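WARN no homologs supplied; continuing
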Amino acid sequence: MFKFQCPMNVQGPMAKARRCLSSIGIWSLVIPWTLGFGNWTFADEPRSAVLIVVGAEGSAEYGQQFSMWAARWRDAAKLGRAEVVQIGLADAGAETDREQLKKRLAEAVGAGDPRREQTGPLWLILIGHGTFDGKVARFNLRGPDVAAGELSEWLKPIGRPIAVINCASSSGPFLNELSGPNRVVVTATRSGNEYNFARFGDFLSAAINDPQADLDKDEQTSLLEAFLLASSRVQEFYAGEGRLMTEHALLDDNGDKLGTPADWFQGVRAVKSAKSGAAVDGLRAARRHLVRSAREEQLPAEARERRDQLEQELADLRVRKPQLSEDEYLSLIEPLLVELAKLYESNTPSGTK
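OK structure emitted
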């Protein structure tokens, strides 16, 4: 069983915190979430909902690729026991794909249970082509397209956590329109002017449940880790072909509408920041998992939520560290880490090794 005992007899906040952090192996703030929690299950926890939208293919070659990308997302969603809805793959019906998308978002993907509609994460995956006329970016659907601003309006009533992943060309402006609180937005391009076919969606769909993407070794792949692996593979593709890169993916999860490229990260931590001093991206995406590990599944939802809050506070404190003395920093960080350790201890079934 996981045990935590902070040496409270050590004098001074700096010495006490140092000993306390060292005793649980997180002096460096690299916090391992890989504790065993027995065989608990939480069947009543709100499930994720995944809405996969495949746009107009343009040609059979692209259509085959888009279908393959969608199948990967569908398989990962099912493995993560998420509710899955697909638009654009079946024969067109009486409703256009645009009408179906608007309807599904209005119904919060038809979850049915109001409690789950507000709490279970929603993943919106856009696979296809995009266009940009210099002012408005659109995702190309069969029939009428959907503009970034329109999609923003459709998402506004949804209170649950949202991840929007636009794998299309010219998708950069979607980030500016969709960025907001409690959202993760990923685009295959950094601007609407990157209009060539984007390969990012291929690599991202393959990475979302790829163990090779698990940088923090917690036995699950986060959206951030998938984004980083997919971005590196896009770069490798263009380098291998001897071609100039025509797509540069961005991730935004702090609501500042700026976005962060993969090369700003070292591991899963952003090591660069905007000149404006805006908060770094990646913290929320690092906690978004479509397929959670067995250990993560066995942690109660309430404990996981509090864990995430503590992790956010630790990350915020890390940003403030240069403005604090070492004693101040350690005195602030100690209670967070003590609570974190106790949280895990209280949620470890007796007899667990």
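The first strand starts at residue 49 and ends at 54.
OK
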